[in-house]
Amino acid sequence: MQTQLFINGQYVDSKSGETWKVTNPATDELITDKVQTAGEADIDAAVDAAAKAFKDASWRGIKAADRAKMMLKFADLIEAKAGEIARFETIAMGAPLSVQTFVAHSAADVFRYYAGWADKIAGEQYPDDDGTYKIVRYEPLGVCAGIGAWNASLILFAWKVAPALAAGNTFIFKTSEKSPLGVLSLGSLIKEAGFPPGVVNLVTGDGKTGQLLAQHMKIQKISFTGSGATGRKVADAANKSNMKRCTLELGGKSPAIVFEDADIENALNYCSQGFLLLSGQVCAAASRTYVQKSIADKFIAQLKERFDAAGQGMGADTLAPTTMLGPLADKIQFDRVMSYIESGKKEASLVTGGKRIGEKGQFIAPTIFKDPSENAKIYKEEIFGPVGIVKTFETEEEAIRLANDTTYGLSATLYTQSVTRALRVSAALESGTVSVNSSHSPSVQTPFGGVKQSGIGRECGKQGLMNYLEPKTIHINMKVG
After folding, report:
1. What are the φ and ψ backbone dihedral angles of 89, each rounded to 5 degrees?
2. Per-residue pLDDT, 310
3. What is the pLDDT of residues 303-312, one digit of tens each?
């Protein structure tokens, strides 16, 4: 188990001397109390290493195709060690091994995708019909940084680091202090893949460490995934320092609209199993379900059955290959979600759940509330746990109004067998992503991000790559020489 920082190609203890403890939220057992916490001197060392590597010929001077070879080798190494890396994630934040293994393989796929882009970053040229020949080059930004959330550390690492490397940048990634072990284990693989020292650096720590990255004058871009409150602090620090670029993915309160013509079995599967993935600790989870009144009673009854069945599997060994649902990430998150549940009992009708499961671990029963007021706390705020609400609607227009009545806009889903309705409603929804007849699962091929207070910028797809490139315009006077 690796607990040191990875800076300039080497594992090192933090200069701050501070450490962090990690407890398994499924068993309440201490995993380690020796995770190194990066302080100001450590962040400065990581930035200096990344800055030096960015200018060094061993990185800046190599062919783009050679960068791609390193990325492809790194992807193969992640895949070969996926089970081991996933286990570190599971014991740290509780997500079942089956889920984290899938996430590890997905991270490898992200590196393969962006490796394919490395030698295909084209410029532009425009005719000299006005006497000036015009060229646009796309150049790497320099030293970039990323701050990942604890719910899916490996995929967030890949979404941020892979496009940056494909573009020719160097990187410092801070994993969450709640789930540091999986990402910290990647240092040896980074080295084995052939990346020069300083190209990729790994640090961990709490919000103070993140603040050091956000305000650092030598970092040109920062990408953050997490809460809206912390995202605002990151953006403020970025602006007040060197006005570094920001990509912010700040969560959501996503709607699922179930129309009366939907494939009900399919909608039930995604509104239960799809929503409960990672025990509801997913930024794009559709926690607000709107059901057309003509089918509501039957749908809600069957949804309750699915939630109850899912709850019966909670508390099982998270390292067992058949376990699908785990605990909340830690006691802090458990207490936060339980406080929302207690609030919900005063604001809405409890359909099922609303209680702790077992005496050990941070498990909460899958919970449904029905018909909260439109000003209720559980209706307005992101809970980030296995707690969903259900309301009914009569018309398509009402469903759209209800779905858009939120300050968030990360994801939305709708269930219908009408293609024209799917196109019409998806266009009207105020959301960065929309999925029809399924939960939203991000694809590396398409941009992922939100509108309104769900953030700014996009990750994945070509847009994810372009966020790590700076356009440079060159004009040549063709009337001279």
Report:
1. -65, -40
2. 95
3. 999 999 999 9
DSSP 29: -
How far does Cα 173 stand from its chain's mean position? 13
Number of Cβ within a 10 Å radius of residue 458: 20
Q: What is the pTM of this model?
A: 0.96
CA distance linking residue 99 with residue 277, whole number of Å: 9
Give, as one character, the DSSP assignment of residue 459.
Answer: B
Distances in Å between the Cα of 308 and the Cα atoms of 280, 329, 374 are 15, 21, 26
**pLDDT tens digits, 241-276:** 999 999 999 989 999 999 999 999 999 999 999 999
Residues carrying an active site annotation: 249, 283
Query: Phi, psi (5° rounding) for residue 391?
Result: -135, 160
Residue type, 464: G
List the beta strands (DSSP E) in 190-285. Answer: 200-205, 221-225, 245-249, 255-258
Across the strands, what pairs with 292?
393
Per DSSP, 270 falls in state I
Q: Give the helix/strand (H/E) hosting 294.
A: helix 293-312
Q: Give the residue carrying structure tokens 């980030």.
A: 384
- What's residue 240's pLDDT? 97
209 within 8 A of 178, measured Cβ to Cβ: no
Residue type, 159: W
Q: Is the C-alpha dihedral spanning 36, 385, 454, 169 positive or negative?
A: positive
* Phi, then psi, of 106 in degrees rounded to 5: -65, -35
